[in-house]
TrEMBL record:
Residues 742-767 have a biased composition (Basic residues). Residues 318-366, 675-722 form the LRRCT domain. This is Chondroadherin-like protein. InterPro entries: Cys-rich_flank_reg_C, Leu-rich_rpt, Leu-rich_rpt_typical-subtyp, LRR_dom_sf, LRR_TM_domain-containing, LRRNT, Toll-like_receptor. The lineage of its organism: Eukaryota, Metazoa, Chordata, Craniata, Vertebrata. It comes from Champsocephalus gunnari.
Length: 788
């Protein structure tokens, strides 16, 4: 009898049983009949029926065992040979909380592989061969707290890869091959506490690379290739208290570079620091523990004010000269009770002495002559003999530097006029920025099939010939920013099957370089910021079917054809800020059913009409309409997008009223700051909405005059409006500020018509006859700010 028949028979028996005795007693009896389902256990595995765990450790399994019990809670599949995790791979075990998949030779996690695992809290994918994290690889893991992807080969994170992991606390991506992190790569991690990116090849962090991680407290970036402290990126991480940057090749820290308000522990040991500015840490006032051990510091100035919390400064392993130049630091450490760890590297009589044991009077300088002699001797001692060969020899053109270990080759700022030839074919990162190539001839990179990232910024390039990059089969990141390109030939990017991120910002394009992108099948993100593109004509994106992000901020676009975006229907991010648009280009969005983020900031859009974003109603999550001189929004301007929208930015406009925000039921962020809001009955819906939501709204009154600068939430006028009676009364024992306006005038309760018009006129007069929105905006902004 087959298994199927057995099940049928069982079902039949159960049915009969029910028909024969429908009483409670019988039902209880039925519960006691052993359930054959719970005995399911794949042959190669060990199952614990009580703990509900299944262990199939190192069994050469090539698939997820199909006969797992549905109620399994922990599944351990370590050490198997499961090369690919297909979509829905675990759909038969929806109760899993722990899943271990280490050492399984996994190469690919298909989109939706974990769909259905809504209870999973722990997922370990370490020691596999995963190279790309796809947009939907982790969809469905809505309860996941820890995700470990260490020791894989991840070199690409697609935008949105983690967007569904709203409960994740720990994401670990150590020992991978990340060279670069795209903007907003970690978007959606709303509860992340610790992000581990140690042991990668990161050499640069974009300003927005870690954007949106408001809850992050701990960040590990040690063992990477960062040459500079990524100030802008770090400043956008408001909650980080511990930052580990050990083992990065930084040589210098400039003025106020570390500006992190909550930072308490900073690890910058084992870098190549030779010097640092006394103010380097002065914008991190909470810093308690600073590790600068094992750098190349010979002398160090006392830190300037601002680091008053500092208690421990580790300087161990630096070649510190304990002479008169170090005395100010020692005095400062005594005065501020900063414990210094480390020893003197010289002069001879203090060498090896603990810094704490040396007192300021002992820190003296010899005569100049003696000092020079000592310096010469020391220089002779530390300069390696010129005949010594580097340990790992690697092919490298003249006037370039190549490293075998990291597969990085660089000829940055060397005034090359032709692309140098003769790099090792194993090169993965090729940095040629800051040269004078003027043009890139066809086939300029023969045999460079392994290059992942190619830097050609600031090379005065005016032309890229057809097939310039052909043969670069592995190229993913191409940087052509800050050149002089004004057009692109359609064949410019021929032969780049994997090109994913293309940077063309700060060139001289006056029109959209159409046609060139149809040969780049994998293009996901296209950067064209800060060019002079004046219009988007029909079909400029035809052929760029996989494009997800298009960045056009800082151009001169005044006109977007209704068919401009056709062909790029999967676009999810569109930045059009800082252009010359006069209206929302609604028609162009008609087929953009996937657009999640739209930025229109800084255009001169005075009015947003009804249904302006209606075509995006299913997808739009973030909308930027700030600093536009916006005077009015139609009541139905946001119609449709309500249930989905998560962020709405309206700051720095000229709005006196806003449309009813009640339909925006998913809103998490809103900014209404710096608008001349008129605190009167027409604004009641906003006031009622503020009462209802638990959001920081940043709305202040700019009118009537007696309410200037007060928060909309705090003023009482709305209680007198029809429908506003339910608002909470003022707290009874509020201590009034001494200069509160006297209540001699009747309160501007339900004022309409004449009074209001008069007030508006008064305001306009105040702003002068100049109606340019920028001027007006500035005035309002200043007025409001002064009064906050
Ligand atoms: C797995 O395969 C390896 C190599 O083929 C073999 O040596 C080993 O015994 C196998 N293990 C099991 C549990 O079958
Ligand atoms: C564009 O230019 C502005 C102003 O100079 C600058 O702040 C911004 O970073 C630039 N953006 C890019 C992507 O180059």
């Amino acid at each position: 009898m087959g298994l199927r028949q057995l099940h049928l028979l069982q079902d039949l028996l159960q049915q009969m049983f029910f028909q024969m005795c429908p009483h409670l007693l019988c039902f209880l009896l039925l519960l006691c009949v052993p359930d054959t389902h719970s005995a399911k256990c794949p042959e190669q595995c060990v199952c614990d029926q009580i703990q509900l765990t299944v262990t199939c450790n190192s069994k050469n399994l090539t698939h997820i065992p199909p006969t797992l019990d549905e109620i399994t809670v922990k599944l351990d599949l370590r050490g198997n040979d499961i090369q690919e995790l297909p979509s829905g791979a675990f759909k038969h075990t929806p109760y899993l909380t722990h899943l271990s998949l280490q050492r399984c030779n996994v190469r690919r996690v298909k989109e939706g592989a974990f769909r259905g695992l809504g209870r999973l809290v722990f997922l370990n994918l370490a020691n596999n061969n995963i190279d790309i994290l796809y947009q939907e690889s982790f969809d469905g893991l809505s309860s996941l707290k820890q995700l470990l992807i260490d020791r894989n080969r991840v070199e690409e994170i697609q935008p949105g890869a983690f967007s569904q992991l709203g409960f994740l606390n720990l994401l670990s991506l150590t020992h991978n091959q990340l060279v670069y992190i795209p903007n907003m790569a970690f978007q959606g991690l709303q509860n992340i506490k610790w992000l581990r990116l140690s042991h990668n090849s990161l050499n640069y962090l974009d300003t927005e690379a870690l954007a949106g991680l408001f809850t992050l407290t701990r960040l590990s970036l040690d063992h990477n290739e960062l040459q500079f402290f990524p100030t802008e990126t770090m400043t956008r991480l408001p909650g980080v208290t511990r930052l580990d940057l050990s083992y990065n090749p930084m040589t210098y820290l400039g003025e106020e570079v570390v500006s992190m308000k909550k930072l308490t522990h900073l690890f910058m040991d084992h870098m190549s620091l030779q010097d640092l500015d006394p103010t380097a840490f002065s914008k991190s006032s909470k810093l308690v523990h600073l590790d600068l051990g094992h750098n190349q510091l010979r002398v160090l100035q006392p830190f300037s004010e601002g680091t008053s919390s500092l208690a421990r400064l580790n300087l161990a392993g630096n070649p510190l000269s304990c002479n008169c130049y170090l005395r100010p630091l020692r005095e400062w450490s005594i005065r501020n009770k900063v414990k210094l760890l480390g020893t003197c590297g010289g002069p001879a009589h203090l060498s090896g002495e603990s810094l704490e044991a040396v007192y300021p009077p002992e820190l003296r300088c010899q005569s100049q002559e003696a000092m020079l002699r000592a310096e010469r001797e020391e220089a002779a001692r530390i300069t390696p003999p010129p005949t010594q060969e580097p340990k790992n020899k690697v092919k490298c053109p003249a006037n370039c530097a190549c490293e075998a270990d990291t597969h990085h080759s660089s000829c940055e700022n060397r005034a090359h006029t032709k692309v140098p030839q003769g790099f090792s074919p194993g090169t993965r990162l090729l940095d040629l920025r800051g040269n004078h190539f003027h043009f890139i001839a066809s086939s300029s990179f023969p045999g460079m099939t392994q290059v992942v990232s190619l830097h050609l910024q600031r090379c005065k390039i005016v032309e890229v010939e057809d097939g310039a990059f052909s043969g670069m089969k592995g190229l993913i990141y191409l940087y052509l920013s800050e050149n002089d390109l004004s057009s692109l030939s359609p064949g410019a990017f021929k032969g780049l099957p994997q090109l994913t991120y293309l940077h063309l910002e700060k060139n001289r394009f006056t029109g959209f370089p159409r046609g060139a992108f149809s040969l780049v099948p994998s293009l996901l993100a296209l950067h064209l910021e800060n060019n002079s593109i004046s219009r988007l004509e029909p079909d400029v994106l035809l052929g760029a079917g996989s494009l997800r992000s298009l960045y056009l901020t800082g151009n001169a676009i005044g006109n977007v054809s209704p068919r401009a975006l056709e062909g790029a229907e999967d676009l999810d991010t569109l930045h059009l800020g800082g252009n010359k648009l006069k209206e929302v280009p609604t028609e162009a969005f008609s087929k953009m059913g996937s657009l999640r983020e739209l930025r229109l900031s800084g255009n001169t859009i005075r009015w947003v009409g009804p249904n302006a974003f209606r075509p995006l109603e299913r997808s739009l999550k973030e909308l930027y309409l700030d600093n536009m001189g916006l005077e009015k929004m139609s009541q139905s301007s946001l119609a449709g997008v309500g249930p989905g929208l998560r962020s709405l930015f309206l700051e720095g406009n000229l709005l006196e009223e806003v449309p009813d925000l009640h339909p925006l039921s998913s809103l998490e962020v809103i900014n209404l700051a710096h608008n001349p809001l008129m605190c009167d009955c027409p604004l009641l819906p906003l006031r009622m909405w503020i009462e209802k939501v638990n959001l920081k709204v940043r709305a202040t009154c700019a009118n009537p005059p007696e309410l200037i600068g007060r928060r909309v939430k705090d003023v009482q006028v709305f209680r007198a409006c029809p429908g506003g009676e339910s608002l909470p009364p003022p707290p009874t024992v509020t201590p009034k500020p001494a200069k509160a306006p006297k209540a001699t005038k009747p309160k501007p309760m339900h004022l309409k018509g004449p009074r209001r018009v008069k007030m508006l006129k008064a305001k306009r007069r105040k702003q002068g006859s100049n109606t340019k929105p920028t001027t007006a905006k500035k005035t309002t902004k200043r007025q409001t700010m002064e009064l906050i």
